[in-house]
What we know:
Oligomer: single chain
Strand content: 15-25%
Radius of gyration: 17 Å
Number of domains: 1
Amino acid sequence: MNTRFFALLLAFLCVAGAVGRSQELNELRGERVGWARLKTPSEHWMRHATGDPVLMQFLRDNSSLNIDPKWYVADCEHLAEMCTYPLLFSQGVHMVNSPTGRSNIAEYMRRGGFLLIDACINKNITPDPDRFLAQQVALISEVLPQARFAALPSDHNIYRCYFQFPEGKPPHTYCDNVYDQRWAKHGLYGIWIGSRMAGLISLSGLQCGWDKMIAPPGHDVMCMKMLVNIYVYAMLQGS
């Protein structure tokens, strides 16, 4: 996975500052990469996937990353599929029950993969954000005992490595667009293996935002900007 990470890093270092410079963007694009969702036993693993092409286009328009406009699937039961992608997006891994699937999640992260877990804010799917967070931590701790978890401070570089989030916190999408302190209190939680951040847990409903659920104008863009920062930061971690 080292070559892919290096190619991605080079691509992101060649950032173009304006969307209008389309010719320059195309000239700078690096190795083509894909966006993939982690397929798990959950019936919701592909929820909001119809909005992913919008996210892919945003990545292409606002960086030099040569990301494929379509989204892909990496089954948790197939490690080779997972390792094709330097970052995997997941609705949650707590429902992965098979020994193979659990082992693959741990091995993917050990090999340098970055796991991004983002909770859907629909209360019928995630009724309790605190419980959701605890479930992710429990599963990953079980399969990857060396992993450590910590809330990211407001001055963490993930809020500044590409787009600027001066308040040092992620944008939040809320169910039915109603502010909920149970969700608002959560920032981003890093998952480390040694000194490398190997994953991130979000209770922000970023996916709900970029899929344009009811939210203030411009919220979808803020969610996509946060995702770009996460992607950039993940690629800078190496393997």
